[in-house]
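Q: Can I see a sequence and its folded structure?
A: Here is a first one.
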Amino acid sequence: MVASLTTESQPVEELLLVEDEEISRRALALLLHSKGYQIRTAASAEEALQLLNHGGHPQMALVDLDLPGMSGLELIKRLSQQHPAIPAVLITASSIERLKEALGDDSVTYLRKPLDFNRLLNLLHV
């Protein structure tokens, strides 16, 4: 499901990017920064939760599915419980079949890798 995400109070300006592959994380962070976004990055779900628990206030999270330790899907579930004001987009290279199996339903917004950057920007309302 690729739907438009909105935040209640203001346009998205700060993003949390959770991606374990350093090159992908750095490249996407640089691209988003070049479009005016403030980017906080984490290499794992656990690191992302620590960042949020120590005062991080992004308006949206971009989360890779396959992370070391806690999966991206589990992180999204925790975000919805602990930080419900932060909508999340799941990013994955997984097959549609594996993705449907992991999601169980279509309530999670996702984008497939390789990312279509223009589609991502549309999702963020740039």
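Q: Show me another, different protein.
A: A second, unrelated one:
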Amino acid sequence: MAHPEKIWIGSCFSKRKVLVLGESWYGDFPDDLATDDGYIRAYLEDRVTDATYTRIANACKMAKKEFWEGIMFTNFVQRVGATRESRPTTEQYRIASERLVRVLAEHTLQGIWILGVEQGAHSAPVVERLKIPYVVTAHPASYGLKNATLGASWNALLDKMQSRALSK
């Protein structure tokens, strides 16, 4: 079985060095589809469809390959349950925070886009301690969220990153 914590790192990640931090995985997937890397690779090869991943790229006004090849991605909580209605527990958030510390220590990042206000309450404090620019936005699958709002949060992150780079 594939290692469930295998992170997606797009081929053009080094240009911008942005981590997109999803909320969580739910459901069971075979083999490498159970990893962020394997699932996104399959998505980009059109072996799986994912409306949320497509929506993210569209909201950022990019083609899916352009967006996903330009970022690093992992879900904050690795497994929560069988369906979307499954929510992370306090213990799962604690474990996810510890994992995030390890991930951030392994990679040099210029910004982090945190998808999901609930998980942002747990992940943002970790990111703040390291002084990495970040933006927390509503989860892309949130009911009523407009693509323009989602895209504006992406642009806000890029603006924060540019401001930080100019101030150095």
